[in-house]
Design brief:
By secondary structure, this protein is of the alpha+beta class. It is built from one helix and four strands. The strands form two sheets. The chain has a two-stranded antiparallel sheet with strand order 1-2. Strands 3-4 form a two-stranded antiparallel sheet. It binds zinc ion.
Length: about 80
Amino acid sequence: MLKILLLITIVVVAVLLVRNALKAASGKRDGAEDSARDASAGAPPADANLVRCGACGAFVPKADAVVAGTGYRCGGAGCAPKR
Ligand SMILES: [Zn+2]
């Protein structure tokens, strides 16, 4: 009887270890994606639908941007294109 209990305990511990290892592996993968996203956050977005405001440097969707000469303006209080 004691042998059976010991065997069950070993199996349960093994299953828990495998489950934790799988969880850690998937967690590491998610973490790598997060750090990649963080690294690209400081760079100008590659999204072609965003344009940079020539006055304040903010990225705004092209649909919301105001065309001002050769560049764009975000439409903010201090960024309105001069007329
Ligand atoms: Zn602006």
